[in-house]
Amino acid sequence: MKANCWYGAGDVRVEQVPDPKILNRRDVILKVTSTAICGSDLHLYNGLMPTMKAGDILGHEFMGEVVEVGSEVNNLQVGDRVVTAFPIACGRCLFCRQELFSLCENSNPNAWMAEKMLGHSPSGIFGYSHMLGGFAGGQAEYARVPFADVGTIKIPEGIPDEQVLFLSDIFPTGYMAAENCQIRGGDTIAVWGCGPVGQFAIRSAFLLGAERVFAIDRFSERLRMAEEGGAETIQYEEEGVYDRLMDMTGGRGPDACIDAVGMEAHGPGMLAAYDRMKQAVGLESGRPYALREAIMCCRNGGTVSIIGVYGGFIDKFPIGSVMNRSLTIKTGQAHVQRYMRPLLERIQRGEIDPSTIITHRMRLNEAPEAFAKFNRKEDRCVKIVLKP
Amino acid sequence: MERQDAGRSSTLDEPTVADRHASHPVRSARAGAPSRRDSARGATDHTHEFLARTLGWFSIGLGLAELLAPGRVARMAGLKDDHRLLLGASGLREITMGLGILSERRPAGWMWSRVGGDALDLALLAGALSGSQGNRKRTVAAMLAVAGVAAVDCFASRRLSRMAGWTTDDGAVRVNTSIVIDSSPESLYQFWRDFANLSRFTEHVEAVTIYDRQHSHWVVKGPAGYRVEWNAEITEDEPNRKIGWRTTSYAEIEHQGSVEFTPAPGGRGTMVHVEMDYHVPAGVLGASIATLFGNEPGQQIQSDLRRLKQIIEVGEVLRSDGSLTGKGRLPQRSAQPAEATA
User: Would you call B303 and A111 a contact, using CB atoms and an 8 Å cutoff?
Assistant: First the structure.
């Protein structure tokens, strides 16, 4: 089969590789019908994620048709159309039973690597480094899905791929970011980063009862998309984010702040330059510019919801602001399996149309161009869907 | 760790227990049970810590001399002047090790690095002796001096390893690790007590032959595909609570171990705690070298326990493309399907 393989920073190649096979009794094999490039794939593309290996198949947002079913998968049949959750989860361990699926204790065969880096290991993730399991990803013609009985959702006839593909990651991820804000009716929410996850966070915040959502980015097309989602926007290169937010909230600050940016934040001024430099020479693994700003802007006693991906260590974390102002920090890789069913129902009820964020549709063969385009945000690129 | 430091007033500048464990290559698997020796800290322990500090300062002094006056040091050791660059490098090495030693209270790892450095210096001097354009007499004298220091280093390293809880009193490497499994102590005890089950989740056990209730024979994959076998006997058997064993006949990797099953708080499964004392050929040094190749015993046993958890909780060991057997070790395969898999 053809698959998009990682070979190093800025180097992905579509290659012929062996077809996947059932390795465990709860596996299924999917014939991939749609797959997407995630913003977090760019951290791999830019060489910021440790424990990647040349030849690794990328991709953790994918859906397809079941073509082979393991002996212990009782709820799926050949021919079923399913979306796959990006965290791999057994459904039986202590954390899965609490619906903390991205913390599954049984789905990372390389847990010892993650323990060295993070202290404890989270769940395995498709196509996202060996530290997170060394699982082949879904930017391919076929994909193996372990624990498929827990990690997939069947899609009823009549709903196109583009409506449901993002149940695999970014819709639940954005939704969890908003849910973590513990929104009460009338709350104001600020969202740093208007990429795909930010877009879903904005829309989810409204679904959960927010009154006003402020969206921060520098790309006009992303800000426009945020406006279409109902947000008031701030172009951070043109105006000071803190001042503007205080202006809009009577000096109190938003009730909750969402960091939908993560480890590759951009920002103006010396501090951002300092982070770039330190990251370049390996003295910190993330550039937490957006996170610092989100903390400083949040109202007293408010919540900072971190959904952008961080991999290791950051500097100049404003813990004094967090501690003295009783802030709550909520974060985590999305527990996708928890959200797939209710969010599918929201899509079916027409409360949200996830396909509106798609800006590019390309062939799997074009993955290298697609990555380059997405990474440089060329051509007003927000979200790329690949068809095998 | 509890201490009896009569002569010390401040402990603020010392690394915490957690810090020390985090930086120990050999004890990276879950900061384990406290060292048994802590309550018995006596005057000799202070002596050894003092000796380590002295050797640390010695490293820094020698390093500075090699770095700042390589010519003079070369002449003292009867070496030619063109060894300057090498001496400079060795000076940097000495300073790094010296600072490392002084940065920890029980710098066992850094002390072993001094032993390695001594070996390197001896090799260098021996090389110079055979090349021989310098002053042979001085070189021999220098070698004798290095050998003397090496003996002290070795002694201090072994003592510090023991004090840091890396090794037991008889020099075995100690490994402590544990995991929580969603099952009862009874069923875990029974699963483990049937030693044939061990090959299902341990990375290295290939086969276990049961002779009788107390005795068994083990075939284990060693490094580089080479096989190790031993006989083991049960030394302790408390049903549903604890199993202890040790190797009997001559075993290449002589060891004793125990596994304990205790209910986790809140009825959240069972804590499985494994403690093993290994006599590996080169002691702590061997274990440190093994660490470099990803075969460190503590981490291995932790990974074994994780697979035991998978078998109990989900019925089988999970496999990935990078870790085809589920026994995730280095080197990993690429995360793409293998050509022919079972």
Answer: yes
